[in-house]
Design goal:
alpha/beta; five-stranded parallel sheet; 8 helices
Length: 174
């Protein structure tokens, strides 16, 4: 079946869905942000504060490229990983790209108690979330499929992905 790549704005469920999907497929689960933290030895907030977003994105791109050749993985990307065209090319090389979607209002609810989102730490308003989503929308749209996560359980979203993967596989074999 190949690798499964999950993209989407922060709070859309990439990590939760990714872990469950990997378990169901008996794949390895990789969280790109966790790889970045492990390599840097500091939190993403600290990377942004100390070195800036540009440095963070450089680490992100390098670690993403290092995954080329991996097989049987579910990869959850950070919300901004899709911004760079080279990253989107690498994501397509790695496997099927599935974009998880949720409305800005739902994201605000999901993230209201979190403090580890550097792009929202100073402004966690609905307007800020909407602006970031609008800016990233064309990049998120560059996916094989988009799945709405609002009002669904993690298991339900995973079921939906598995059905889509089965249909996509059947079309590929026809």
């Amino acid at each position: 079946m190949g690798n499964i790549i999950l993209t989407g704005f922060m709070g859309t469920g990439k990590s939760s869905v990714g872990k469950e999907l990997a378990l169901r497929l008996n794949y390895r689960y990789i969280d790109l942000d966790a790889l970045i933290v492990a390599e840097a030895g500091i939190s993403i907030n600290e990377i942004f504060t100390r070195d800036g977003e540009t440095a963070f994105r450089a680490i992100e791109a390098r670690l993403l490229s290092s995954l080329k050749g991996e097989e049987n993985m579910v990869l959850s990307t950070g919300g901004g990983a899709v911004i760079a065209g080279e990253n989107r090319r690498v994501l397509r090389e790695l496997g099927m790209v599935i974009n998880l979607v949720a409305p800005a209002e739902e994201i605000l609810l999901r993230l209201r108690h979190e403090h580890d989102r550097p792009l929202l730490n100073n402004d966690k308003s609905l307007e800020r979330i909407r602006a970031l989503i609008a800016h990233r929308e064309p990049f998120y749209a560059d996916a094989d499929v988009r799945i709405e996560t609002c009002g669904k359980t993690v298991a339900g979203i995973v079921d939906e992905i598995l059905i889509w993967l089965k249909r996509a596989g059947a079309r590929g074999q026809a």
